[in-house]
Amino acid sequence: MKTATDTFTEQDLKEMIEVRRDLHAHPELAFDEVRTSGLVAERLTALGLEPRTGIGKTGVMATLQGGQRGKTVLLRADMDALPIRRRERRALPLAAPRARCTPAGTTATPRSCSAWRRS
């Protein structure tokens, strides 16, 4: 498969974009991210990780073991959306139709890092 970047294939990039768009189409407020945390756990499992769910109610955690000894890196991402007022909705092209919140945003980052580490 042709490489889209030095690290990600065209398919990797397509999947990351699809996930981002899906998360923006289905925003969830803090501690109500049931759908989002399920999606994150599903994606981590697909990457060969063993996610733990229900952390702090809707949190998800997975450990990615490196092949060598050394320093530890922690990646953290927010999954919750931010509430928006009615007049702000029109200015948010990525928000879901009739949205009352919009994703804050960094859920795709750990997935990207996991895919990168896999290579």
Question: What would your notes on this structure say?
Answer:
The structure is a single chain. The protein has one domain. It has 4 helices and 4 strands. The two termini are 14 Å apart. It is α+β, with helices and mostly antiparallel strands and 119 residues long. Strand 1 and strand 2 form a beta hairpin. The protein is globular.
Set down the secondary structure blueprint:
Layout: H1 10-25, H2 34-46, E1 52-55, E2 59-61, E3 81-83, H3 86-89, E4 101-103, H4 108-118
Main features:
alpha+beta; 4 helices; 119 residues
Topology order in helix (H) and strand (E) letters: HHEEEHEH
Instruction: Give the strand content.
Output: 5-15%
Give the N-terminus to C-terminus distance in angstroms.
14 Å
User: Tell me about the biggest sheet?
Assistant: 2 strands, antiparallel
Counted beta strands:
4
Taken from the alpha-carbon principal axes, the silhouette is globular
> Helix content range of the residues, please?
25-40%
Q: Helix/strand/pairing class, anyone?
A: alpha+beta
Radius of gyration: 16 Å
Strand order of the largest sheet: 1-2
In total, the number of domains comes to 1
Distinct helical segment count: 4
**Unreliable stretches:** none
> Residue-averaged pLDDT, rounded?
77
